[in-house]
Design the sequence.
């Protein structure tokens, strides 16, 4: 494409190759003419890239320069704003293979616990919800047929989260005789924190971190995860992408290099 050739003509050989790859990859994946590109095309493309936050910022800055070159200042500004949202160093949750293994093992034992304990632990493991969100639930918030939950998150923002089949069965049995306006759980946050500490050695928020990493490691979309977790900014969710990628690499090295 003539625009890409002209855009990269003044760059060094290595930069020219890298810039061409990024712009061509974007245009190929989106499949649109330059004149019909929209901001949502940038968001869709970058959210589907299984890359680190550092690489994501680089891609966005390259696209910003390209859009400025072809006089699409609206898209250029949007790319710069998206790049700024990606913080250089978010706090890294402590999630490793051992925690993920213990979470999987716990899933197999949840139904044996029975009652309130079984239901609250199943919800934490299956949905990625915050503990405060779980403890504020009422039966009317839960649709067992669709296996969905209506959650009121931070800032009063409502979202929908999803349950696995085994979680829906456990929760359904627990709430079957409750009225719609009943509060499902009558326990304190401190009680749940003690339960989770005894079972996994982490806090309930540690389960939320593990849920996010497992979701991405199994091929989940980061934009979808952002909505599930109720994050207002994608940059908050992106920290889990780096962890998931590092765990996949560690598993490959451990499996293949010692076989």
Sequence:
């Amino acid at each position: 494409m003539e625009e890409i050739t002209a855009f990269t003509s003044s760059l060094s050989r290595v930069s020219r190759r890298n810039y061409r790859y990024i712009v061509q990859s974007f245009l190929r994946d989106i499949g649109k003419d330059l004149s019909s590109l929209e901001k949502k095309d940038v968001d869709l493309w970058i959210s589907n890239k299984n890359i680190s936050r550092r690489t994501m910022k680089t891609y966005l800055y390259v696209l910003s320069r390209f859009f400025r070159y072809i006089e699409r200042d609206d898209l250029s500004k949007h790319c710069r704003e998206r790049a700024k949202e990606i913080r250089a160093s978010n706090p890294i949750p402590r999630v490793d293979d051992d925690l993920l293994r213990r979470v999987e093992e716990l899933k197999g034992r949840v139904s044996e616990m029975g009652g309130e304990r079984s239901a609250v632990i199943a919800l934490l493991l299956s949905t990625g919800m915050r503990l405060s969100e779980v403890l504020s639930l009422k039966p009317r918030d839960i649709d067992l047929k669709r296996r969905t939950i209506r959650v009121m998150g931070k800032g009063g923002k409502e979202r929908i989260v999803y349950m696995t089949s085994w979680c829906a069965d456990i929760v359904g049995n627990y709430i079957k005789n409750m009225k719609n306006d009943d509060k499902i759980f009558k326990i304190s946050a401190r009680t749940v924190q003690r339960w989770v500490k005894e079972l996994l050695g982490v806090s309930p928020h540690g389960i939320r971190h593990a849920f996010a990493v497992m979701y991405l490691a199994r091929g989940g979309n980061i934009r979808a995860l952002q909505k599930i977790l109720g994050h207002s900014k994608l940059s908050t969710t992106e920290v889990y992408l780096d962890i998931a990628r590092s765990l996949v690499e560690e598993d490959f090295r451990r499996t293949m290099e010692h076989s």
Notes: The chain has a mean pLDDT of 87. The beta strands are 142-143, 148-152, 158-162. The chain has two domains: 2-85, 97-254.
